[in-house]
Amino acid sequence: MSSRAPTSARRTWRRLDRRVLGRIAQSAAAAGASWEIALQIPGHGQPFFAPIAAVIGLGAQRGRRGRQAIEMIIGVAIGILVGAGLVEVAGAGAWQIVVATVVTLALATAAAAPPVVRVQSAASAILIVALHRPGSNPALQRLVDALIGGGLAIVLARFLFPVDPLELVRDEARVLRERFADAVDEVGVALASRDRDQAARAQELIDGIDDRRLEDALALARDVARKAPRRRPLRRRLDALGTAWHELELAASDARAIAAGALRVLGDDSGDAPRLAPAVHSAAAAVRSIDPERSRAAAEQARDEAQRLLELDGSLGTAVLAHGVIEVAEHALRAADAREADRRAAEELERRRLRARLPTR
């Protein structure tokens, strides 16, 4: 019991890394600033929704904060229009709240609006009806609050502190690369030990690799680089690394051939199975390394070893495995070239920044 407490504390502390603490600080600062800005509007009352809007806008996952702030403003506007129109026609009451909720959710759903738009439209309509008092104007106040809090969130997320798009994809690529390399290494271990059950488990690991998160991260990163002015210079680097990450996805697909070939070899009770293991381990090393030179060396070694296997053994299992290794090696070589291009783009970007800082004569 005593050993679990320090482990849990360390896990909790790791969740509060510098990046997370920075986002918390931005949300807190935006909440306070939006409150003060809204208070400067004459007759605005208690602008409770302005700081809430700022926190909602900045509370989205990395890369989606500016978009969520815009979606929130849209949702609030829809809800205000529906709620204010309903109050004007039928007054306030329980059945009006029911109607307002149904109408806003139906409109947002029919328009295929994101969840934030649907929730905020319904919540805004409910508040407009519920808080309606003769002579008051909660609709205008809530809209102004949304514009202040959401606008401040957009400024912070898109202009002052935009997320690093390269970092968005690197995190997902690292997870995919490590899972892929571990699974392929597992095939090599199974071949070395002639363990067909272990090879079957490795095949399940490869089949379970999901590259959709990497695709989503890449699409989100490109959106950030396109819309955040501070991140636009990174578009060339993102294009170069996008090629590397695409090759990683293709390599994960071709790894299924390695596992299938290993299962066939081991199913034939071949005593030559351990001879295939080095090529498989080299393919895993080629994908695991992010250093272009090391990756190239491992990929070339894997390709040469696979070619020798094809020359020495014409069996179907060996052929399937060797061709899988060759394909993975080719993907790793193209990925290494893309990372080299990224390095050159990063150096060129740094030179431009240095030139921009030099005084002009």
When the domains are counted, the total is: 2
Strand content: under 5%
- Which architecture of the largest domain does the CATH hierarchy give at level 2? Up-down Bundle
Class from helix and strand fractions: mainly alpha
Task: Compute the number of strand runs.
Answer: 0
Plain-language structure description:
- This protein has 14 helices and no strands.
- Helices cover 82% and strands 0% of the residues.
- It has helices spanning 4-15, 18-39, 49-58, 65-90, 94-110, 115-130, 138-160, 165-193, 196-207, 212-227, 235-267, 273-288, 292-312, 316-357.
- Helix 11 runs antiparallel to helix 12.
- The mean pLDDT is 87.
- The N and C termini lie far apart (69 Å).
- The chain has two domains: 4-160, no CATH class; 165-357, Methane Monooxygenase Hydroxylase, Chain G, domain 1 (Up-down Bundle), CATH 1.20.58.
- The protein is elongated, with a radius of gyration of 28 Å.
- The relative contact order is 0.08.
- With 361 residues, it is mainly alpha-helical.
Gist?
The chain has 361 residues and is mostly helical. Helix content is 82%, strand content 0%.
